[in-house]
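Record 1 of the preview.
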Amino acid sequence: GGAEPKGRSEMIIDGKTVLVTGASRGIGQALVEEALRRGAARVYAAARHPVADPDERVTPLNVDVTSAVQIQEAAGRVESLDVLINNAGVQPLDDLSDPAALERALAVNLLGPYRVSQAFLPALTRSRGTIVNNVSLAALAPVPFAPAYSISKAAALSLTQSLRMLLARHGVSVRSVLTGPVDTEMTRGLEIPKASPESVARAIFDGIENGDEDIFPDVLSQALAEGWRAGVAKQFERQNAALLPPAEPVAS
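->
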């Protein structure tokens, strides 16, 4: 792909501490295994129904991302953290006739990563770490059978961009993952080409290690990567980021 602009920050996973939400299946489970394969010192596998892992580097955490109490409890158990991957998500199939579907999608897919990021921000600031939000290509253009999901993912992309601007001065980098269809329970009924969770997890960690701001981890998303990086939305994001005054020097 094209060269990323300045401000890119590479992060080698070897020896690092990683937390993944939605870690019990699908992409989340693949991310846990890939972090271990890359030599992570510790992986926190957070899920509503956490599963045990034979690797002693894995610590299961009981986290429903809509529960402020569970998020705070988890944050209390994690002493240091280098990489937070907000991966938990729901995909209601709806037609926007029922507000409950939209409220549920926003609660999990937008407010979930917001709350989790805030809770772990002190630890990530100390480590000058990185936040990775698994968004979706649906953030860029809605999927007709899942508009509530698409709306929540568009909002999650905007959250990611906002955090990127605001946290850069604290040394925390923020990345989005713009995923196409992946072969998980979420897409079971769809007769379309899908990437494997393992290949997506590999590409996500490649993107983190390369310092990519926006990660396109599968064949469908990869086809859009060049256009996105050179596109008007990305230029405008950089222009707006320049409006922030430089950070105050912190007394050590």
